[in-house]
Design goal:
Elements: H1 4-8, E1 15-16, E2 24-25, E3 30-34, E4 38-39, E5 62-67, E6 73-78, E7 94-100, E8 103-111, E9 116-121, E10 127-132, E11 149-151, E12 164-166, E13 169-176, E14 179-182, E15 185-189, E16 193-200, E17 206-212, E18 221-223, E19 226-230, E20 235-240, E21 246-251, E22 261-262, E23 266-271, E24 284-289
Antiparallel strand pairs: 1-4, 2-3, 3-5, 5-6, 7-8, 8-9, 9-10, 11-14, 12-13, 13-16, 14-15, 16-17, 18-19, 19-20, 20-21, 22-23, 23-24
């Protein structure tokens, strides 16, 4: 495209909008994608506030709907235009039928590192509700100043790992982690905590929240009336889907940076992440028995 470098950036330098996780497909053959951040990232003195890629940087940090038979773009909704904080909207979208204005409506729910959970109409892309989750502050969007500031969510905060849905309730793992940075780069990070929330798929209302001391890196996995997750300090949690109460928890030999899996009789967890700078990695697969 003539003049394209002025509008979109330089294709030899700029890129982005890839996928982290699998898409979702509905019964109409529509394919829904949650896309990642534009590049280059992080910022640098030679490219303050990513001026090398002017404009919104479509279709990054977006939920994109395609016709599965033809690949035709049906609609897209960008959550973070011109992202300079690595705020991917990367989670696998969740499809769920809810009541909107008294009528059954297929919704597609997405989330990402900007710390927003958003429900859209699957047919039209109309936004049904928006839920900010976790820690947010005044520097969460827009250009960054020349002097470093603390912005929340940081580049590894917000919703990092996949959500789950059961009985029209969305279970959302989130991370509170702020970064300190400026228009020219990152200089540090704050203290991290995390949590898991149960969210009404029809309204975006939070039913309950449970907070963790370490990063919830374990996504949300549901079996019957239990939602499982895990944290980087090596703790596995089983929580009540109804109340968020901890039904049981267990400590693995090392940290966890993966998602639990479930068979008919077992919960299987991969471990091996460092719990401190001095702790050596120690990879294992640990299985816990589940009630029959």
């Amino acid at each position: 495209m003539k003049g394209g470098s002025k509008l979109w950036g330089d294709p030899t330098v700029n890129s982005g909008g890839g996928l982290w996780y699998p898409p979702a497909v509905d019964s109409h053959g529509r394919v829904f994608l949650g896309t990642g951040n534009p590049g280059p990232y992080p910022l640098s003195p030679s490219d303050p506030n990513a001026r090398s890629r002017p404009g919104p940087n479509l279709y990054t940090d977006s939920l994109v709907a395609l016709d599965g038979a033809t690949g035709k773009l049906l609609w897209y909704r960008q959550v973070t235009p011109h992202d300079i904080r690595d705020h991917d909207f990367q989670d696998s979208p969740i499809l769920v039928t809810v009541k909107s204005h008294g009528r059954p409506t297929e919704a597609v729910v997405g989330a990402g590192k900007s710390g927003f959970v958003i429900a859209f109409s699957a047919a039209t892309g109309k936004r049904l509700w928006t839920l900010p989750i976790g820690k947010h502050n005044r520097y969460q969007s827009g250009p960054l100043p020349a002097k470093p500031v603390l912005y929340c969510p940081g580049s590894l905060g917000g919703v990092l790992t996949p959500m789950a849905e059961a009985r029209r309730i969305i279970y959302v793992p989130w991370i509170d982690l702020c970064f300190k940075g400026s228009a020219t780069g990152i200089v540090g990070a704050g203290k991290e905590t995390s949590g898991l929330a149960a969210v009404d798929a029809a309204t975006g209302a939070v039913r309950w929240k449970h907070r963790f001391r370490a990063i919830d890196s374990g996504a949300a996995t549901i079996a019957d009336d239990v939602v499982f997750t895990s944290t980087t300090d090596g703790t596995v949690y089983a929580l009540s889907t109804r109340t968020g109460a901890v039904l049981w928890q267990a400590k693995t030999p090392s940290g966890i940076n993966s998602f639990p899996a479930i068979t008919r009789t077992m919960l299987i967890v991969g471990t091996g992440a460092r719990t401190s700078a001095k702790a050596p990695p120690h990879g294992e697969i640990v299985a816990y028995s589940l009630p029959g």
